[in-house]
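Box S1 | Example of a co-folding query
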Amino acid sequence: MERQRGDGMTMVATSRLGEARHFGAHAPEIEERLALLAEASRVLADASLEPPAVMERLCGLVVPLLGTACALRLLSEDGLWLRTVASASSAPESRARFQALISQRMRADEGLAAEVLDTGEAQGVEAVLVLPLRARGHAMGTLTVWRDAPEPGDSEPFDPGEHLLLQELADRAAMALDVARAYAAERQARQAAEVAAGRLARLQHVTAELSEALTATRVAEVVLEQGLAVADATGGGLWLVDPDTARVTLLRCAGCTPDAEERLRRVPLTEEAPAARCLRELRPVWLERGDALEGMRKPALSSACLPLVVDGRALGALVFAFSMPHGFDEDERAFLQLVAHHAAQALSRARLLEGEQRARAALREAHQTLEAIIQASPAAIMLLDPDGTVRLWNPAAERMLGWTAEEVMGKVLPAVPPEHWDAFRHSLERATRGTVLDGAPLAGRRRDGSAVQMAVWTGRVHPANGPPQCLSMMVDITERQRGEAAQRFLAEAGGVLAGSLEEEETLERVAHLAVPAYAETCGVFLEDESGAVRCVATAGASEASEVPPPGLLVVTRVIQSGRPETRSGLSDADPTSACAGGTFAYLCVPLQVRGHTLGALTFVTSKRAYDAQDLSLAQELARRAALALDNASLYRDARQAIRLREEFLSIASHELKTPISALVLQVQSLMAGLARSGAQFDPERLRRGLERVDRQVKRQTLLVNDLLDVSRLSAGKLELVLVPLELGALVREVAERFEPEFARSGTPLELSLAPEVRGQWDRLRLDQVLTNLMSNALKYGRGNPVRVELEVTEGRARLRVKDGGIGIAREHLPRLFHRFERAVSERNYGGFGLGLWIARQIVEAMGGFIEVDSVLGEGSTFRVDLPRG
Ligand code: ADP
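Box S1 (continued) | Returned holo structure for adenosine-5'-diphosphate
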């Protein structure tokens, strides 16, 4: 270091020079000065002392040896002021005076100091010597030495040697100070570097953590847990901008009171809150004094509010709060902004990631939904290449057609039979070109070889890679088509069955309806009144044979049980085996109406199996056929009833009129005889005449009684009066009553009566039954003997009335006991056709039955069987 030690250094004596010590160039003085210099060097080199202490010690060396007081002043940074950093004074009495002088802060650019500093030369004014402190050509301050003013005539208060010495001391002090300053600056720089390095390390840590934060919440967590520590902040918060609502929402805060957290949760962007402000202005807001932030647990006396900006877009705001007033230097500002920058980047990344995850989840969900739809679809869904190769096959397709996905994927669709293949492929190609099939029918086959009718819908699909494909949806409409065909069939059957009320015709039509659509052979079987089952109509292959399969045994069983019987006739393995070995499938269903089984209907085929749908179709046909049969029979009955009624009316008028005419004639003849003969009228003739009148009246009465009985019985008003009765006696009584008539017609009457046939019966009603049977035997007996027999068993009485008369034709027998039924013409035989009906009602009311055996032209036997009550 070049030191300027000017020769022109001036020493100015003051007016008061005290006991100044003069250092001349005498040897002891030189030694003393050298010792002083050595001591000064030692003090200045003492590294254990801080610069102020060094300066104090230096001043202590100067006083009292070289002056009575000494002050070391340093320039302020702006170079305007000199500040006393060390001082010393020897005499206690002058200390106070100097003290005031020393402690003064003085302008550096005025007076002696300015001159000294400007010129770099020491200036002595009176007994004060001010020396420059210079190092590396720069003025640092001054060393001021006071000495009592010399006596007038004395030499200069500071001799050149002293001057030189003091300047040497000042130079050494300046150099030491410079070194100390350099050292301090270097230490400060090192400390700053250490702080910066520490921050950098911590920032790296935060950055590392942020780089792993996958969600905005995690970003906030890292920033507020790690970031606060890094920034030495005591609290803070991270808000996110909600672009929809133009406000910021608190994501997380640290060091806040719950109240403040709640209050700060949503902050409109328009508010004065620092978080909102920094976002509005898109630049950090540094609050260095007490108005920084409210609501912090430790009062925040300063805070930094940093916008989190990525690509010019504000994502949120980050606030650090500090419990001390805080001047944010450039480094710290840059550092906090760096933290904010990394936080913003992490936030943006997290948002992107969240967005991507949401999109992926939505995609996954959409995919799963689509997959679930395909899996759950009741319709078969398949994706086919234009050449028919299967690329997708859902469970419904497997259920419908029988092939599993593994079996068909990558292979050509096996469900289309060869004869339809060309047409199908053509439609596939058209579909992949965009033509849509909308429920088109397709005849396919299942894995088991059975036929399936499908409705097909198609649509074109463009896969990400590769040529367009055809999406096909297929629905099995086999059953629906069968159902529709069955409905059509039944509708047709309804029409056919309604077309005729003739029983036979109806049956024939029924049989022919089912052939060939549902059966090769169809038979209609009826049970007659005797319980015999016979085939009344057939259609199909076995029309020639009398009884078509499955034969009378099965049919009788079905009629008796009223339940259908079926045989599929097929093995599962081979549906065509129905034909094999003469096996066949059949359905036999009862013809039932109003709770009665009339007969049965049979369907037989060797071509296929019958299933439940066939069975229900046959049952429905049988139900309708039975109804038609019933209608035909009711129609026949109604016609018969009408015919009988008309017949009855003509007979009734004839029957009622004939006795009346005879009666009128008889009475008129008697009255004429009486008029002619007066008292001489032959009493015998009168008796015979009156007897004839009596017979006619009785006959009339019987006829009227019959009519009364009919109306009574029809109304269900037959009341029995059961009394103990000996039946033989009653038979004899009735026979006696008939005796004259039998005699008159010359009909022999034989009685063969078991004795004591007793029971509880209605006497008058049984009389009526006997009268009817005996009068019929007389009427239709052609004069041949009539025999009445009476037998008795344990609990029953049996009466037989036998005649050898005209007999009854076989076809009339079933209806003989019906109302108005007659087996003869009214021209030959009178009668209402009511007697047997009434007799049956009476006998059945008493718990018995009446029946007839008869051979036309040979005679009849009527049997009455009665419980003995
Ligand atoms: P009717 O008053 O016509 O005799 P019934 O009910 O007594 O009425 O008899 C019904 C029909 O039964 C008769 O019209 C007749 O054709 C037949 N009939 C009844 N009894 C005999 C019999 N003993 N021999 C032959 N036919 C008979």
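The CA atoms of residues 240 and 316 lie 4 Å apart. Confidence is low (pLDDT under 50) at residues 1-25, 571-582.
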